[in-house]
Structures are given as structure tokens and as C-alpha cells.
Records
---
Amino acid sequence: MTVTECTSLLEQLRQLPDPRDRRGIRHTLASVLAVAAAAVLAGARSCTAIGEWIADAPAQVQAALEVRRDICDNGRRPPHEATIRRILQSVDADTLDAVLTAWLTTRPQPVALPRRRAIAVDGKALRGARLSDGTTIHLLVLHS
């Protein structure tokens, strides 16, 4: 995902109502959901994997996903796996699905690459088969 794609995703996710109590919120709903979406696009398959992905993400990625800044060390403080899990459990799935679908439909279609024909070549030496001069016989198998 590019920075502009992160920005457009965050804009879409800001439309969702936050189901959490306003007291004690450290991470915005849009940021946590964008982190989850980006991690899943990168191959994460669980809340634990999402938490590990964002913790290991470079500062530029965390900044693009609007991860909260830490005022003590001037770095980023990504959401913990438990926070991600609670938010994903509490958000309305149908509304989230509609917002993510709307975002996906606005993304540009990938450029179709020209189809290339591939030929696989496999060679085998016939065991025990030898010519009169003592050389082995080789078979060449083409797969298309």
C-alpha cells in the first residue's frame, strides 16, 4: 500500500462510529482498523500476527497508518494485540465490510501484465541404458 492509499483508507474508516467508551482511548478507531487491514494485506492471519506486524513495521509505515506518537521517546506506540482484538470484536462487521468494499472499489485496477508462455524442461538419464561407445542415453521432457 502506498501512502496515498493509506490516507484514503483512513478517510473511509473515519466514517465508522466508534463503539468504545470515550474515556481511555489511546488509538483512533480508524488507525487500528487501517493497521489490521494493512497487516492482513501483508499476510497476517490472526490478531497476534497483526500486532507483531505493526510492531515490526518501519516508522514510515506506522506514520502512514497514523499510529499514535509516543511523547517520551518521540517514536511510535503501535496498538497491542489485545487492543486490536477488542476493537475487531466490537466494531459492526456489516458496516466495516461496506466501508472496506467502498474503499476497494475506488482503488485503481492493477495493470494486466502480458501473459508469458513458460516451458519447463526436465532431463533424465536412463539408468542402465548405454550406447555402444559407453555414453548414457538422456531423455528431454518438455512441459508447456
---
Amino acid sequence: MSHTTSSPKVNVPLADFLDKIVLSAGKVFAWAYVVLMAVIIVQVVLRYGFNHGLVVLEELQWHLYAVGVMFGISYAQVTNSHIRVDLFHARLSRRAQHLWEIFGILFLMFPFIYVVFDSSLPFVYDSWRINESSASPTGLPYRWIIKSVIPLSFGLLFLAGLSRLMRDVVGLIKGE
């Protein structure tokens, strides 16, 4: 998998290892979209072909989409395929780009990850504790599984951010 960064990727073995974890997880969770498409097709056929949609399939669609998006964020961070404003970034010197990236990771990304991760733990714990399920009698059981995606995916996003931070610090030090 090639990275789409605007500059050469700085070689940092620990960052490479973290990237492999994130990329591997991303490739696994990307299959959620394949399953999602199949579930949507089945639901459409049932609803419009047989006039009988299933709540469980509708909820499964939401869950599969959430899994793909939540774990896809860290994949996008590692591959630098996320949406960003490069108009100003591209005009900066390499040193200024590294400093800007480091600032963004330390003062924007990591605090955001911490707030979401920390806030999600009691939310997930309560769901596990009561063995939460769908409010619909015919909906999905084990709602705690999908809620557990929040801290897990933000933990993976932290690894992606840490990898990026290491690369930018090394790039700043080496002048790359």
C-alpha cells in the first residue's frame, strides 16, 4: 500500500510497525462494506419484492456502516487519504510542515481522541453491564458490541496518530 503523502515517508521502524497494525485492521474491517452491500440488497429485495423488510437487517446496516467508518478513520490517517486543506500546508517549508503536523497531533488530534475514548468507556460499560439490546423486539441483541467499536476504533486512531507524530518528529530532527 503506497502512502499518498506529499513528501517522502520518513523511515521509523516503530511507526512502520504501528502502521502495519492499523493497515491490517483497516483491511479486515473494510469487509464490513462488502457485507453491508449484501445486507442492503437483501433488505431491498425483501421490502420491495416481498413487501416485508426486516428490522434486524436495517439495524445491521447501521452497525456495519459504523464499523467501516469508525475503523476507516485510522486507515485514512495512516495512508494520508483523509480530507485536509493542503492549500496552505503545501506552501510551508518542510520544517514548518513538520511543526504544524506535530502541533495538530498534540493539541488537536490527541485531545479529541482522549475525550471521545474517555467518554465512551462508561457508555460501553453500562451497555455491557445490562447486556443492552435493540429497543425493537425483532432487532439485534448485544448492542454493547457496536458500542465497543467507539473506544476500540479511537484506540486504533491513537496508534495511527502516534505513528504520524513519530515520523514528523524524526523528519524534523533529520531535516527531511
---
Amino acid sequence: MKKVALFVFNGDPACFIHVLLNGLDMKAKGMDGRIVVEGAATALLPELAKPENPLHQLWEKAKSQGIVEGVCKGCAHKMGTAAEAVNQDIALLEDMSGHPSMSRYIEAGFEVVSF
């Protein structure tokens, strides 16, 4: 099975939609795709929770399909969205000095793609 970890740093919704679409497409095609929300993208969490947000349905679908691996704990704290991650029941990833480690995914056989 092809395994891909999509690390999204970019907080631009026009970029974030492509991460969601690709993650869902991978899942639909039987791949193990995981989304890790990093950097400025962590600031999007409160907006993604709003039903009127154009990305809300895709975000909820990605979460319900289990492809949202988590959110960078350090960046979420910096952006003031750590509580929102917890509220949305999204894991705060911190295995590399408070940030998610790409090497953990590489060691587990994932290809890492960053946005």
C-alpha cells in the first residue's frame, strides 16, 4: 500500500483545499494518506469548524475518514489554536521538540509531501 504524509504549512485556504482533496483522493484509491497540519495552517482551525466556511465539509470528511493525523502542538500554541484542536478532537503532535517529526513518517515507509 502506498503511504503518503501530507504536511501542510501554508495557511492559504487555496492551498489547504488541495491537501484535503489529495488526502481524500488517496483514501478513495486505497492509499494510506495522512494530513499533518503545521505552521501557519494551524491558524485555519477555527475557520474550518464553521459550517459556512467553503472548506468545512471537506475538512469534516477528512476528519471522519481518519486521514487528519494531527496538528503541530508548537505551532498551534503559537497561533493560539491549540484549544481549538482539542475542541475538534484532533491530536496535538509533538514528538520532535514540540513539533511533528517527518522522520517518524519516513521511517514508517511514508513518502512526505509538504505544502
---
Amino acid sequence: MTRTSLRAVAMGAALLTVLSVSARADIKDYEFQLVDKELKQGEAVISVKLVHKPSGRAISDAVIFAKRIDMGPDKMEAMTASLLPVASTETGVYRFKANLTMAGNWALSLGAKVQGEEGTVESKLILKALP
């Protein structure tokens, strides 16, 4: 190879690197999805999956920094429960233990950072606690 062609190859590789870094996904391309929309009232394990919507790929390396569960959908925002992280063996599935003290609709609010992306994934998911 000539010196000129080597330089062209190096420049092309550098351009591809720049393009791949700037071609990140939009944070709106990610969403949390409930694994089960109905759970038994009382001690429950709530499972959610973080998904990259365009590819359908589960995202397992997110950092969840905000979490809350309350009965806002039933006009009882003050009725809350604590959420404790629970280990998961499934890729992209995040689990939380909660005591759903009343039957009815509960809102699970989550905020997360996806590695390598700017912005925050925010979701409010509605689940039902059955008697």
C-alpha cells in the first residue's frame, strides 16, 4: 500500500468512529415495560423490562436512580409502599419487592440512566393489585 492509501484508510476509520459515536439512540427510544400487569395484593415482586424500542433489545446495564410506587391511579397518591431491589437472572429485567397493602391500581414510577446515552428514561407504569 502506498502512503497516500494508508492515510485514506486511517481517515476513513476515524470518520467511521466519529459517526458511530454520534449515532447514539435517542433516550425516547427506551421504555420500561411491566412483565406482569396484575399481582396479588400483599408482598409482591414487581418485574419490569427495559427495552430499546427500535431493536426490541433488552437493556441490562441501566442505573435506576428514582423509584416510587403509589395508588395515584385510584386518587390515593399518599398511599405508598417501599420498593426494594431484588436480584434478577433475566437480561434487562429489573425486579422490586413491595408490599401492596390494598387491592387496586398502583403507579410504578421509575427513572434510569442508560449507559452511553444522554438523558433519563422516565416511566410511569400502572399495575393492578388483586385481592
